[in-house]
Amino acid sequence: MANDGLERFEAALGAISKITSEDRELVGARCPKCGASDFAKISDLFAEAAGRLDEQPGSAGSVREGGMTDALIVEKFRPPERKSAAGLVLAVAVPLSAVCFYLYRRFGDLVGQSAIAAAAVVTVIVLLTTLRRRSDQYYERRRRWNSLFMCRRCGQLVAS
Ligand SMILES: [Zn+2]
Known about the structure:
The protein is mainly alpha-helical.
């Protein structure tokens, strides 16, 4: 019984080191589809395919790991990108300035200026919360991308 507890403790430690380690490997894992145990990291596959395409664009159609071409690997395993928040800020700022303009014309300087100040505050809040949320989403997508592997034989994707 004591052994059982120790084993569980070690299993937990193993799970944690697996999660925290940056350079993950799939040790002893088997492909759920074909049973092979030879995996390639998605991020490595992408970097290698992108490098080959860069050096010899003519090789785009050659079939590589898992029956995929370099062009397909680059297309499918592209790392997640940060999205710009500019579009969203414009979508908030433009209607707000129209409202400010209307209030300014209708009620004069004081109301107009207060409205502009309020609109600026709202825009900044939207910008900050959006950046924060997108940053969290970006790191989450990045983490998932970093933990993906592909079976070299059949192309099955596996998450570590
Ligand atoms: Zn496989």
